[in-house]
């Protein structure tokens, strides 16, 4: 290995983590790495960067420059345990395996605080396997967990998981101060006061929690890896604000330990949140900034003062009074119009949460707090005055009356104060967020917001109840009054149950006053938040405000089927459409552009993972289920595995991890992926997909042993455009086509979408597979959208699928038997049937063992009672080719003899005569005769081809290759050669066979490339042979023998540099083993 810049061959540290050794691959790449050894030395892990992100984040927290202290991180004395969760095989995407192993390492190394600058959208806040493990680490092992809230702002409810959606994690928003703007971002004029970055995600969560708890500086010039060829770099994001807060937490913990104060994530978090400096002056600013900008000195003072108080966290669970539901909320979030038009009552359950291991008698029984409840808006949110809280928890009711509020965003809090120690600040908070929407009353539905004035960082939020029947919006935005270019973020968000937030976003640059148009889909009946934000650094240095007018027009075509399923029959599907809002152009278009083929595992293996790094802190061993799937591609294609049960959920998933690899028969891996599978280009061939699932619960994994997986393939040129009809018989008769019409408000119109015709079905679409694509109905303004015949370009499209039916019965099977029957006797017909059955039995016999091969040979000999019957002789030749025998010389002689029997059984003169004449298709039995002759020609060509290959192999075994090469050179080039002695040698036979093959087939075809390559190679034409080999590799890239042939040809040509290059690539193309998961 490489250690501290010095090469130490064969020396691997016993514990590289403790020894803290690192290496550099080379001075050229300047890329550092570290090693870890697992499983008693059987696994060596070499770890390097996926990106500069992790180094930058760690530098913000703990960078230490003793000679340049101004470059230090927040907590330069802190020790760092680096846990890589970004998988380099996936770019830098985090995986469940990496996340779980990181938490195990945190507990193993007794870490005090975690920073995680990663995250994704989630469907369910505060839910999933990772969240369960985090709760255990925080509550049992008393680790403070700090994480980035996300970079998906400025709309509300854009916080990501886990940082912004998990109760036990402190989610951090990104703040920029005037000094940062001037120094780090080098702006010509800094803002007058600090503000949240425009892109920083906002709360609340979908279940009402605040989402953003604190804010910290969200940009920094910090260290980056040496391979970037620079020491430091400016980056910004909540990925930077989180380590900034984490460094502050490290300072607090260090000071608490120095003072002998007991450290708890509960007390540290309370100290942070209750000492923040508020950002902004409006109550709703908390949804952007949390409780404010962290103040480390004040937080430590708070912690000192609270040192003797019990360490408690208050778990909040909320339900609507009188409403039966299994889901608990963490806040009150009234977003829809129906909630804003009436008072509602909510039951709040408060449960004090002690750390695991708390003493029943000394801590739980004596616990009692008298809490004074406060409401920040008593006219709207009413709560009791007092609450006596004991360990078993208490509930109280809150009444929310938003009926007198104006349209827009409103934020309130109900919070509890310790009557005996009010200096502690709020012990718990119940966020109450109300987004009262504006009702669109015009017909057609159109709403305009004008005179909106913008300065850098200014955000305008408008809430609109989307009219029922609306499915898309056409928006027009006009700017005026600005002398410099302005950049705006325009977002639209809706929230629907059991869905991730429905979000549309755009970034528009107005270089001068102008107009831009946008179109996006909406869901009728739900509140839409429309956000317009001038980017925080756009327009600085200008004294002019940008004035914006935005016009929002709602359109919609309501259809009877959100998803269209064609069942594989010839019957079309009836669709009913109506426009509820205004006249709309109805112009349906549908295209099937993908195919999904279902597979079940061919093998499953359940095993316990290594105790080195896959044993949970609780002592439970993580188990792994490895499922193996086999599939074949007849042509090169772009494919993507789909696992409907597991895909697209990393944090809101009860399964710990999923990872797949696609490899060929040579163990070469072509694609890898996890929860977000992507398309991969695969050449023609057979593939194995291994899927790796992890969990501690054996029953969960047992239930997935027959998990269905789909291989999705892009159709590209084979995509099928579907047709529409006015009649149910249209797909069969071809009449009554439907194109477009105009829907009047309130009127309905129906039409049919037909299935694809059988001749349009793509190749390799087996029974049970599904063709899928999109269908759209409306036709937006051409100024806004130009979709053509592609429904996916329409702002609103729906999924359409077609179930591939069973293949049609072979029409030729038994088709002409009647005409023949009249010309043959019963005995002749019976003899032919018996013969064909015998041949079928021969074809189905196995030849895996000597006994099976002997049985096959006995039957093939007895079938010689049908001499000159070409199909039988061709079957015997095929059987010989499938054999694996030790005596290769005799085997090839048998193949040559069998091929000769096939060739001699065919009247080649008659065959040539028939193929050269253009027959009359109307003539009786012409088609049958033509098919028979073409089959005979194919059998002849195959026999000649296999004979040629066998002659070469036989010559090689007999040592006649030199004679073969000399003979070929003499015949083709005209040089004297040394043929064999008496009799016809394999040399003469090869050339004779090749020339005969050329009469019946195009020898340049890829099918016969092997024979052409051998002929060219032994003729001394190495360049031509190399060209043929390269073409064969393009056709069949998985054959190791072809690459070895290429290397041999390059060696013979004297191109040593290419030989060395190809030999190195052989290790990649044909690895000895499959990689580990």
Automatic annotation (TrEMBL):
Enzyme Commission (EC) number: 3.4.14.10
GO terms for MF: aminopeptidase activity; serine-type endopeptidase activity; tripeptidyl-peptidase activity
Cited Gene3D superfamilies: 1.25.40.710, 2.60.40.3170, Peptidase S8/S53 domain
Family listed: Belongs to the peptidase S8 family.
Domain spans labelled Tripeptidyl-peptidase II galactose-binding: 454-538
Catalytic activity: Release of an N-terminal tripeptide from a polypeptide
PANTHER family, per the entry: PEPTIDASE S8 (PTHR43806), TRIPEPTIDYL-PEPTIDASE 2 (PTHR43806:SF14)
Stretches the record annotates as Disordered: 806-826
BP-aspect Gene Ontology terms: proteolysis
Listed name of the protein: tripeptidyl-peptidase II
């Amino acid at each position: 290995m490489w250690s501290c810049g010095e090469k130490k061959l064969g020396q691997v540290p016993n514990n590289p983590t403790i020894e803290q050794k690192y290496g550099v691959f080379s001075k050229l790449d300047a890329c550092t790495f570290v090693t870890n050894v697992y499983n008693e030395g059987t696994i060596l892990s070499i770890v390097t960067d996926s990106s500069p992100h992790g180094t930058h984040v760690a530098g913000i927290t703990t960078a230490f420059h003793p000679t340049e202290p101004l470059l230090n991180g927040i907590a330069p004395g802190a020790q760092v345990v680096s846990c890589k969760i970004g998988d380099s095989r996936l770019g830098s995407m985090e995986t469940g395996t990496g996340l779980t192993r990181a938490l195990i390492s945190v507990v193993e190394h007794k870490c005090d605080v975690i920073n995680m600058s990663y995250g994704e959208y989630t469907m369910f806040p505060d839910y999933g396997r990772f969240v369960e493990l985090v709760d255990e680490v925080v509550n049992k092992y008393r680790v403070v967990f700090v994480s980035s809230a996300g970079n998906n702002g400025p709309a509300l409810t854009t916080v990501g998981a886990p940082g912004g959606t998990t109760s036990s994690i402190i989610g951090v928003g990104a703040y920029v101060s005037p000094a940062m703007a001037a120094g780090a971002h080098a702006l010509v004029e800094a803002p007058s006061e600090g503000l949240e970055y425009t892109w920083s995600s906002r709360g609340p969560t979908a279940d009402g929690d605040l989402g953003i708890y604190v804010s910290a500086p969200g940009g920094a010039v910090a260290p980056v890896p040496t391979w970037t060829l620079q020491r430091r770099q400016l980056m910004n994001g909540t990925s930077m604000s989180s380590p900034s807060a984490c460094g502050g937490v490290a300072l607090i913990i260090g000071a608490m330990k120095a003072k002998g104060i007991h450290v708890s994530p509960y007390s540290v978090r309370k100290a942070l949140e209750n000492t923040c400096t508020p950002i902004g002056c409006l109550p709703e600013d908390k949804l952007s900034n949390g409780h404010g900008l962290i103040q480390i000195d004040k937080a430590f003072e708070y912690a000192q003062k609270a040192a003797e108080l019990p360490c408690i966290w208050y778990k909040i669970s909320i339900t609507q009074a009188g409403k039966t539901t299994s889901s608990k909320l963490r806040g009150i979030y009234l977003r829809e119009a129906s909630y804003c038009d009436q008072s509602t009552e909510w039951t709040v359950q408060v449960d004090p949460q002690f750390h695991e291991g708390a003493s029943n008698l000394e801590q739980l029984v004596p616990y009692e707090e008298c809490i004074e409840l406060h409401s920040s808006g008593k006219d709207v949110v009413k709560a009791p005055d007092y609450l006596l809280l004991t360990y078993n928890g208490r509930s109280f009711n809150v009444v929310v009356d938003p009926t007198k509020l104006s349209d827009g965003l409103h934020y309130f809090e109900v919070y509890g104060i310790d009557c005996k120690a009010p200096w502690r600040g709020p012990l718990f908070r119940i966020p109450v967020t109300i987004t009262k929407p504006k009702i669109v009353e015009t017909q057609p539905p159109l709403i305009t917001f004008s005179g909106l004035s913008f300065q850098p960082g200014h955000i305008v939020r408008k809430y609109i109840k989307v009219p029922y029947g609306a499915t898309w919006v056409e928006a027009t935005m006009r700017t005026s009054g600005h002398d410099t270019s302005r950049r705006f973020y325009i977002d639209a968000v809706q929230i629907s149950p059991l869905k991730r937030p429905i979000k549309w976003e755009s970034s528009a640059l107005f270089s001068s006053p102008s107009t831009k148009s946008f179109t996006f889909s909406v869901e009728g009946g739900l509140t839409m938040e429309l956000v317009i934000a001038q980017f925080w650094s756009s327009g600085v240095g200008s004294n002019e405000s940008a004035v914006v007018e935005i016009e929002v027009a709602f359109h919609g075509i309501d259809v009877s089927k959100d998803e269209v399923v064609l069942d594989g029959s010839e019957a079309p599907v009836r669709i009913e459409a109506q426009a509820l809002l205004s006249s709309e152009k109805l112009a349906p278009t549908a295209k099937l552009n993908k195919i999904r083929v279902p597979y079940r595992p061919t093998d499953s293996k359940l095993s316990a993972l290594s105790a080195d790094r896959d044993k949970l802190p609780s002592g439970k061993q993580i188990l792994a289920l490895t499922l193996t799937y086999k599939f074949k591609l007849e042509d090169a294609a772009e494919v993507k595995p789909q696992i409907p049960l597991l895909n697209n959920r990393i944090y809101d998933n009860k399964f710990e991890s999923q990872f797949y690899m696609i490899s060929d028969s040579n163990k070469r891996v072509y694609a890898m992926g996890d929860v977000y599978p992507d398309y991969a280009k695969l050449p023609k061939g057979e593939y194995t997909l291994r899927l790796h699932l992890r969990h501690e619960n054996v029953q969960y994994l047992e239930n997935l042993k027959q998990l269905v997986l789909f291989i999705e393939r892009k159709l590209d040129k084979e995509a099928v455009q579907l047709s529409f009809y006015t009649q149910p018989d249209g797909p069969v008769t071809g009449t009554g086509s439907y194109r477009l019409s105009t829907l009047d408000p309130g009127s309905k119109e129906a039409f049919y979408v037909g299935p694809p015709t059988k001749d349009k079905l793509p190749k390799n679409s087996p029974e049970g597979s599904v063709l899928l694509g999109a269908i759209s109905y409306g036709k937006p303004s051409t100024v806004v959208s130009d979709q053509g015949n592609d429904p996916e370009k329409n702002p609103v499209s729906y999924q359409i699928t077609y179930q591939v039916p069973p293949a049609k019965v072979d029409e030729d099977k038994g088709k002409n038997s009647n005409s023949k029957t009249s010309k043959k006797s019963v005995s002749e017909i019976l003899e032919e049937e018996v013969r064909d059955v015998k041949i079928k039995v021969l074809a189905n016999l196995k030849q895996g063992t000597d006994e099976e091969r002997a049985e096959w040979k006995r039957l093939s000999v007895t079938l010689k009672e049908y001499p000159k019957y070409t199909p039988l002789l061709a079957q015997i030749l095929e059987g010989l080719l499938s054999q694996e025998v030790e005596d290769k010389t005799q085997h090839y002689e048998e193949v040559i003899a069998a091929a000769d029997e096939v060739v001699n059984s065919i009247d080649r003169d008659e065959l040539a005569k028939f193929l050269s004449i253009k027959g009359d298709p109307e003539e009786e039995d012409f088609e049958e005769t033509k098919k028979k002759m073409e089959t005979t020609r194919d059998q002849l060509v195959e026999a000649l081809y296999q004979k040629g290959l066998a002659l070469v192999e036989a010559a090689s075994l007999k040592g006649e290759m030199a004679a073969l090469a000399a003979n070929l050179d003499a015949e083709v080039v005209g040089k004297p050669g040394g043929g064999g002695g008496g009799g016809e040698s394999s040399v003469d036979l090869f050339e004779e066979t090749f020339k005969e093959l050329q009469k019946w087939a195009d020898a340049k075809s890829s099918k016969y490339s092997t024979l052409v390559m051998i002929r060219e190679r032994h003729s001394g034409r190495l360049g031509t042979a190399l060209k043929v080999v390269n073409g064969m590799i393009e056709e069949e890239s998985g054959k190791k023998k072809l690459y070895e042939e290429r290397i041999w040809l390059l060696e013979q040509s004297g191109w040593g540099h290419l030989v060395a290059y190809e030999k190195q690539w052989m290790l990649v193309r044909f690895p000895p083993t499959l990689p580990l998961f």
